[in-house]
Specification:
Elements (H helix, E strand, L loop, with lengths): L1 H31 L9 H8 L4 E7 L2 E9 L9 E6 L5 E6 L4 E2 L2
Length: 105
């Protein structure tokens, strides 16, 4: 019984990781194709690209912001990262594709 639950749990984790991988690839593709746009609402971004691996609140250039961190679930520590920044009205104001420049449209 314990082994069955363990097996079921591993299958669920594998499925969730594959979904996160597809969502991350979709985010990268939308950045590359300039489909990610400033002004998108936070909840719309989360619906489209999934929940971020971390959300940090703080200040950037004297403005209160929320930074959502996205990364490749199969290369967690050394992989590609994307930071999405939302203002206090929960609108996307800019993003940073690590290894690229900050985009501010």
């Amino acid at each position: 019984m314990v082994l069955k639950r363990y097996s079921d749990n591993q299958a669920s984790i594998s499925k969730d990781t594959k979904v996160a991988q597809k969502q991350f690839q979709s985010l990268l593709r939308d950045i590359d194709q300039k489909k990610l746009s400033c002004g998108m609402m936070e909840n719309v971004v989360y619906q489209k690209y999934g929940n971020p691996v971390a959300v940090l609140e703080g200040y950037f250039m004297q403005d209160a912001v929320k930074r959502a961190v996205y990364r490749n679930p199969f290369d967690f520590f050394n992989g590609h990262k994307v930071y999405l920044y939302f203002d206090c009205s929960k609108k996307l104001v800019y993003w940073q594709d690590i290894g690229s420049q900050v985009t501010d449209e």
